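>> received
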Amino acid sequence: MKALIYLTGRSFVNNLKKAVKKPVTLLLLIFFLAYAVVVCLFLGQIAVELRFDSVKGLVVLLSVWTIYTFLTNLYGYSSRKGVIFRPGHAHFVFPAPISPKWILIHSAWMNYLLSVAVNLLFVLAGLTVFGVAPLRVFFLFFLGSVSEILLEVSIMVCLYTNETLPEGVLKFLGVVIKFFLIGIVVFFFFYFRREGFSLSSLSAFFDWPGLCMVPVVGWNIAAYRLILLGATRLNIIGTVLYLCTVAGMVLLACRMKCEGEYFEDAAKFADDYVEMKQKKRNGELVFGMGEKKQKIRRVSAKLSGEGAKAIFYRQLLEYKKQRYFIFDKMSLLVLAIGVLLAFALRKNVEASGIASAFLLGMVAYLTLIMSGYAGKWETELKNPYLFLLPDRPFKKLWYSTLMEHVRSLLDGCLLCIPMGVIWKISPLSVAQGILIYAVLQANKIYTRVLVQCMVGDLLGKTGQEILRMLMQMFLLGIGVIPAVAAGLIMGLPVVYPVTLAYSVLVTAVLGALASLRFDSMEQM
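>> returned
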């Protein structure tokens, strides 16, 4: 037991030391703290202006967080992917003469730390923004940081260490939980599609008495309502049921027998986790661990090109070998975002009467915040022959990124067409929005090249991405001035051509600057 406590504490301290030794850590810490302060002040001001700064507003936020954490924890623990194990656990911790339950509980320390940190934020918000009495805040913190963690640990132990049920039953339980989660998401989707996505519809949903009748998660929300809003028959019954559930799950977890059969799954998880982290460092888009390798098709076509064109044709041939050509999981994600935003914001867009401005804002915002994915362009930088080809740097850069521009056009169609159809925007504006999306994605690529040339590996991948985002925010901010001026003088339809012309001009300049520094990237 003492060895586990030492291991947990030492792991935490070593992670802090490792982070402090990096030169970019202080800069990133200052950036994230400043960003968090600005966001909190902004949200607090919005809550006051929208009269959402009452106790009911805090109940809504707590309900959203409770539903999110319960569903994600249930999904993660049912699939045995909710606790982070590392290769060192398989080699040193699992063979140790320590109870497998305690190994599991100590390995999930980061989950508890996150819960406590979020609850501290709720305590701070309750005292400063929502005007909750200190005694109620104390019970609020106790409920979130003690009873919820006890329930989480008990569920985790029961799902990980249950060795009496057959493997098939556990897999079936995992499938049932997944379908339950999908049903919850579909319910939310159709509810907000019918009622519209607004603070009033959100508040009305969480005031619905049936929500507090949902087993476990609804009873937890009833306990929060009892603390913050006062006693009602439904809140009291839900709270009692929740506390009885916590006590029963703790008792069941204590009596559960475990000989360590989950160690095999945990060791496989550790290997998959290391592989996933490596893919993320390389900039690849990862949706989960243990993903199956893509099947490669046999292609009989022969493509050839001279100089830098050979790079484009080789990438085209590689995409042809893939099962769905340039369509992949990222395409589905972009399509899902487009459809979700189209339905969620439909009533707001119709009420505003400026649907085309909403579309342009969504295109710019999503381009800015989405870090993107590693396409063939990212892998080209690792190939020495790219810098040895007898051609001009500008042509190398262009043909290396040409397939990414094609994919950006596809993603732009998947994003803009659903919003254009549902918001009833003219086809010309939708087409211009697609072109603007593709140009801004190219802008992102060339800005990233310049950032890599300027700072190298000093800031790491995260620091480079933040610097790229700041540079792109600055450039987009400058472009807002002529677009707004043109819209005020000549009308809203002129905003799209002006924005497109400005984006093309700035992207061309960035591409030219990036090509001048292209040869220096061989040394990075």
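>> Residues 325 and 442 are 20 Å apart (CA to CA).
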